[in-house]
Design goal:
The chain is mostly helical. The chain has three domains: 6-116, no CATH class; 125-246, Serine Threonine Protein Phosphatase 5, Tetratricopeptide repeat (Alpha Horseshoe), CATH 1.25.40; 268-385, Serine Threonine Protein Phosphatase 5, Tetratricopeptide repeat (Alpha Horseshoe). The chain is built from 22 helices and two strands. The protein has a two-stranded antiparallel sheet with strand order 1-2. The longest helix is centred in the middle third of the chain and has 19 residues, at 124-142. It is flat and about 80 Å long. Mean pLDDT is 84; it is low at 121-125 and 354-386.
């Protein structure tokens, strides 16, 4: 796991975007520019990064034909030759690869991998016992024996079991088997999250989001959401997309919004499919492509998203990204109307009220990235003109 602060990474990305890769690969340029971009809040991180740049790590990573072996070598060299801690060496190298090459993989120290392999070999029996105990605890919880479940979760959590730590956090959050205590919930969520448990990362992010058990901090919420999103959690990928779209807790970035919507949409999240379609139809964060917009509206519509159904009907009615087809327009307006969508009802009534020889009018172009949040504009008037 790359534990480098996300804001610091974003600042490095901005440095490279504006000044080119040489701003990190050229030690002299890096020394001049890094302070201006990183700011006074990241003196320690900047100092460590500059050491790695001066050692040649950034230049090697930028030009490597085989990136993974290069990263492993530089993690080892920073540990052995420059006195970096194992975690710091990993974070610096992975961050440089991410910023310079767009590499999102996380490379670990060879020493860490060896230790993990040894621990895995030695701890198989213990893991099996932990799994059995965790199954027992879950069974107790599901049968509403919350006190006994919480006791068993605590025993496993104290021993470092991330899943048990998450479950104990849930007990404290919900007040099941223990006195409800949001701060204690956050404590256990954090322990599991720091071990890389994606669900715990989401829970911790939610606590920061809502200010439950911890001071509200949208930036830290986004940080933990991104950790979980990087592990493939489709729901939080969609949430993160909206954070980047709105600039909530992160610097507004429509391209990143579209990126995370697409990651989630590809896993079948209907809300993400809808938002990605809106990105394509408006050209927000991606090159405008109404054909792709229709594709993603249809994906969401087929899963029953009533607003996507309405928008798909609109595209067919107006011939946006697809051949104009009043029959299909009526079908999708009808599907949306069946779920109570008032705009779809209105559109369907207007469509059916027009004579057969009506011609498509110019209408108004839809701009709907945040339509679900802000409500729908009446954009059907003028769609058909005599």
């Amino acid at each position: 796991m790359n534990n480098m602060d996300q804001d610091f990474i974003d600042r490095l990305r901005k440095l490279v975007d504006e000044q080119g890769n040489a701003a990190l690969t050229d030690a002299k340029r890096c020394k001049v520019l890094l302070g201006d971009y990183a700011g006074s809040g990241y003196k320690k991180e900047s100092s460590l990064l500059l050491q790695a740049v001066e050692a040649g790590a950034a230049k090697a990573i930028d030009g490597a034909d085989e990136l993974e072996p290069c990263k492993k070598t530089w993690i080892r060299d920073l540990e052995e030759d420059y006195g970096f801690s194992q975690e710091t060496a990993q974070n610096i190298v992975n961050t440089l690869a991410l910023v310079l090459r767009g590499d999102t993989s996380v490379t670990k120290s060879m020493l860490a991998e060896r230790a993990a392999a040894q621990n895995a070999s030695a701890g198989t029996a213990g893991t099996e016992k932990d799994d059995a105990a965790l199954d027992e605890a879950n069974s107790l919880y599901n049968s509403k024996q919350f006190d006994k479940a919480a006791q068993l979760f605590r025993k496993l959590a104290d021993a470092g079991n991330a899943r048990a730590q998450l479950s104990l956090g849930n007990c404290y959050f919900r007040g099941k088997g223990v006195t409800q205590d949001y701060k204690e919930a956050v404590k256990w969520y954090r322990k599991a999250a720091e071990q890389g448990h994606a669900d715990a990362q989401v829970c911790l992010g939610c606590c920061y989001d809502d200010g439950e058990g911890v001071e509200q901090d949208k930036a830290k919420a986004a940080y933990w959401y991104e950790k979980a999103a990087e592990q493939g959690n489709k729901t939080v990928q969609c949430t993160l997309g909206s954070r980047y779209a709105d600039g909530e807790g992160v610097t507004q970035d429509k391209s990143k919004a579209a990126y995370w919507y697409e990651k989630s949409a590809e896993q079948g999240d209907e809300t993400a499919q809808y938002f990605l379609a809106c990105c394509y139809i408006d050209g927000e964060g991606v090159e405008q492509d109404k054909t792709k917009a229709v594709y993603w509206y249809e994906k969401a519509a087929e899963q029953g998203d009533e607003i996507a159904q309405y928008m798909l009907g609109f595209c067919y009615a107006k011939g946006e990204g697809v051949a104009q087809d009043k029959t299909k327009a009526a079908y999708w307006f009808g599907k949306s109307a069946e779920q109570g969508d008032e705009m779809a009802k209105d559109a369907l009534a207007k469509l059916n009220a027009k004579p057969a020889n009506t011609k498509p009018g110019k209408g108004r172009v839809f701009s709907g990235l945040f339509r679900k949040k802000q409500g729908k504009d009446d954009n059907f008037d003028g769609l058909w003109e005599k």
